[in-house]
Design brief:
By secondary structure, this protein is an alpha+beta fold. The chain has a single domain (5-134), classed as Cytidine Deaminase, domain 2, CATH 3.40.140.10. The protein has helices at 3-23, 63-73, 96-103, 126-129, and strands spanning 36-41, 46-50, 79-85, 111-116, 119-125. A five-stranded mixed β-sheet has the order 2-1-3-4-5. Bound molecules: tetrahydrodeoxyuridine. Residues 28, 31, 33, 35, 51, 53, 60, 62-64, 84, 92, 94-95, 98 line the site of tetrahydrodeoxyuridine (THU). Tetrahydrodeoxyuridine is lined by residues 28, 31, 33, 35, 51, 53, 60, 62-64, 84, 92, 94-95, 98.
Length: 141
Amino acid sequence: MTQDVQDVQAAQAALIAAARQVREQAYAPYSKFGVGAAVLDEHGHIHAGCNVENAAYPQGWCAEASALAAMVAAGGRRVLAVAVCAEAPEPVTPCGGCRQKLREFAAADCPVWVADLRGLRASHTLGELLPHSFGPQHLKP
Ligand code: THU
């Protein structure tokens, strides 16, 4: 096995573990649907976050947004890989809004690993989840 493959597998395992762990902190009293997300930044650091709901329902936010906020606060500016962990009949991919939020910091080939408590359920790239996306390059003169 090449070092690259080992590195990706190690990153995948670490990100899924972080997403699974932070999911336990989810504040989801209304939906009862806890989600954890973790992102790997350009410094090799992992940042994790959970969904945070609100009695004024639309004011709640997703786990991916929490993970991105943690990354930015820590100085990270690029997302190299993403993991999401939730328990559902089908693999839980990031919602549309979170795909766009991730797009700000991630390239089209960024892996998005989707897991549940048993482990990896699905693997996509951000470009597959959000094709023909609008991004920072559109605002360049
Ligand atoms: N949720 C996330 O945190 N991430 C997703 O990718 C999908 C949905 C949250 C939002 C809300 O708190 C709960 O899951 C039910 O929609």
